[in-house]
Amino acid sequence: MVANTTRRAGTLCLLLIAGISLWGCASASSTEVKASASPEFNLESTPTASQAFRIAVEQRGKTGWTGDLPLVSPEGDRMAITDPKRPSDILIRSIPNNRLDDPMVLGRVPGPIRFGRSVDESGFAVMDGERVGRASWVGGAVEWVAEQNASDLDLGPDNRIAFIQNGDLVVRTPTATLRLEDDTATWHGPRWQGPSGILFCWRVRDGALDLVRFRTDVEDSAALRRTALPLRVAESGGSPTTIATTSTFRQFDATEPGPPRCVFWDPARQRVRLWEPPYPIFDFPAGVLAFVSDPNDPRFGMSVQSTVVRRVSLLTPSSGVPISGGLRLPCPIPNGEWLLFAPDDQQISVECAILQPLTDNET
């Protein structure tokens, strides 16, 4: 993800609403060109950059919005969105067949309240400035998990959660509650990635900004600290404001959990990067604003640029097949489909991109 300035990056990461140009995409067939593996990045699975598929992009309606991108349930049948008429509340709407034409309201979470970028089968993360909790997809009832000076709740696999409280990182697993306290550092923005309990979290210490990976299959806080694997992102300038620019459009683990990798905006290098230990860090080409992995095949994903969304291979990220024009925000849903959100001033449109791999006979 590359932008001309940190301010522009922050705007694109938080809202991604600039540069919208709407046009449809007809059904087409394309093949990605095979290339040799990059020496900077090794894929766990057998490397290949060739896959032929048929693409169909369909309009699925629009709804009013206030600036917060909708959340979609893992099954792809429900959506949480700020109520355009009462912006302090959250509405839970049905989206049958991924359509927004006439969504039914299934629940309301009364405010003032906001939602995060984290979902699981039970609900989605919410916060009110002091408390963090999970709002149910069924009716919107909130289960508060921390009620004092808490923020940044992230929902993980196997009912794991992570959040920030008084600047400390708190992790709850099925067997333990773990807390990292440090008088010289503050923690921000935990993100679960992958099915095995890998957690990434930002740390600011003496102005330096680090991205730290943890394993959470441990029994106490000291053991959690020992699993820390830090990546120095910036020697100076680390702050909550800087960290607000590091999150690209959050990857939704809406079908099968993806690999334990973290895609983020690097404010020092002005670029989107991918970190999947133990492999070296991977830099996306200039012009990429965000990347969302395909949960069905992590060698591929959707690359977001200011004027196009492309399906790309991590072996050939500078090329790829155009999916839709204008700024779109991709969210994978079951059955190999993707929702593409297109924000406008007061409405947000949705398209559904259907990718069908071709058989050997068809290719």
Descriptive notes:
The chain is mainly beta and 363 residues long. It has a domain at 1-69 and 251-363. It has three helices and 28 strands. It has a five-stranded antiparallel beta sheet, with no helix packed on it. Strands 3-4-5-6 form a four-stranded antiparallel beta sheet, with no helix packed on it. A four-stranded antiparallel beta sheet has the order 7-8-9-10, with no helix packed on it. It is globular. The chain starts with 5 loop residues before the first helix and ends in a 6-residue tail after the last strand. Mean pLDDT is 79; it is low at 1-49.
Sheet with the most strands: spatial strand order: 1-2-28-27-26
Overall geometric form: globular
Structural class: mainly beta
Helix content: under 10%
Main sheet: strands, sense, barrel? 5 strands, antiparallel
| Overall number of strands | 28
Cα gyration radius (Å): 20 Å
Give the overall average pLDDT: 79
How many separate helices?
3
Q: Segments where pLDDT lies below 50 for 5+ residues?
A: 1-49
Q: How far is the N terminus from the C terminus?
A: 33 Å
Beta content comes to 35-45%
